[in-house]
Structures are given as structure tokens and as C-alpha cells.
Design a protein that fits this description.
Strand content: 35-45%
Helix content: 10-25%
Number of helices: 1
Number of domains: 1
Order of helices and strands: EEHE
Distance between the termini: 21 Å
Number of strands: 3
Largest sheet: 3 strands, antiparallel
Radius of gyration: 11 Å
Shape: flat
Length: about 60
């Protein structure tokens, strides 16, 4: 999934229940790689990738 908005950034979050304990905003290419790494590292937890709608980095 790639974002085509003006910001072109995506947010990757790792969820423990209802708490996102990892929240990173980056370029779509890096977001996909980061999400894959987080899925390997935190098997069994939800990892989401979504458009940020802004250009800032939340890490």
C-alpha cells in the first residue's frame, strides 16, 4: 500500500492491545521495510501502515 497524497509519508505502528508502543512516520518505501521488520520482531502483534496526512516525523 503506497500513499499518493502530497505528504507522501506513511505511519507504521505496532500495537499491544489498544496501545501503539511503536509509532514511526516515514517515506512509503521505508515504511514498508520497517513494517516488515516490526512484523518479524513482534510476531503476534498488530502492525499497521497508513497515510499520515502530514510531513512530520513522530518518532
Amino acid at each position: 500500500m503506497h500513499d499518493t497524497t502530497a505528504s507522501g509519508r506513511q505511519r507504521v505502528r505496532v500495537w499491544f492491545g489498544k496501545v501503539a508502543f511503536v509509532d514511526r512516520s516515514t517515506s512509503p518505501e521505508l515504511a514498508q521495510a520497517f513494517a516488515a521488520a516490526m512484523r518479524r520482531r513482534f510476531t503476534g502483534l498488530d502492525v499497521t501502515v497508513e497515510p499520515t496526512g502530514r510531513g512530520g516525523d513522530s518518532s
